[in-house]
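Hi U.,

Before I forget, here's the chain from the pilot set. I'm dumping it here mostly so it's searchable later in email.
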Amino acid sequence: MTNDVEIELLGITKRFGGNAAVDSVSMSVMRGEFLTLLGPSGCGKTTLLRLIGGFANPDDGRILLSGKDVTSLPPYRRNVSTVFQQYALFPHMDVFENVAFGLRFRRVSGDELARRVADSLEMVRLAGMERRLPSELSGGQQQRVALARSIVLNPRVLLLDEPLAALDLKLRKQMQIELKGLQRKLGISFVFVTHDQEEALTMSDRIAVINGGQIQQIGSARDVYERPVNAFVADFIGLSNIFKGTVESSDGQFYSIRLGSHKVGVRGPDGSSSKQHGESVSIMVRPERIQLMSPQTDSGLPGKIQSQVYLGESVRWIIRLDDGTEIQVVEQNREVEGPSFASGSDVTVRWEPANAVLLS
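Structure:
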């Protein structure tokens, strides 16, 4: 373990009955990193967070925090704080006492307690609200109190279990920006759990995509969006079009893939063995990387527009290809010269080979 690693999980497994909620997970969280655990409900992400925080013990494997084995230590003996989805504020205590609760438990008192509480409330922009009760606060303000209560303890790691889930969409987007700014200001590691792909892409330095208790892919937002390693990651993060075809040829970097009676280009996956002629493969193209062309275009896949969805900043086209496959194409809603397409129009779709990914 290097000095830059804050959390290291080594072969962590947690079973409930005969099912492994977390299955042989090994991963690291770097110092000062915002890492998001992303996946569908029931995939094991919250269980993994609870294991890091000490609220559950693994059946196998070890957990290291700052190089120290804490696998069997209770939460209060780990230098970790947790922000829960429901905030868990004490309704009979005012903001000051909610934030001070952990400090009093640690026997911090007097001027130091007052200073640390004031600093934490200033950091989350709640200065002046010390004597309000939780019932007198908005949802966003309650969430900030929960954050202040955690950061006042000066943890090395902050764990966040879907803390924005109860907020309305506009406030949620605002808090995403504030959380990321807070993490940068504090300079500590955040481990954030969500099932919201856009939230993960917005906030994370790296994303660990989880399914079935296992990490499917871990990398930057750009990595997991533009270079998904398998069909689950491609389909779960953002909109994707997945085609099934067979390999025609390859130059080692790009492949020619036959889709029905047509050939298309695609780049190969990183670090994988080469695909052979005639091998069945899946390829992924993001909707915004597909070009919508007139039906007279020589190269591409012919189809027919089924419908269009106006999304304000963009337009989404639903297109049925000649082989029956339905795909989506997204174009930015801007005034440009070019063909105008309506429902029922014949079209051709194409993409640059570098914008399509051959899935492992």
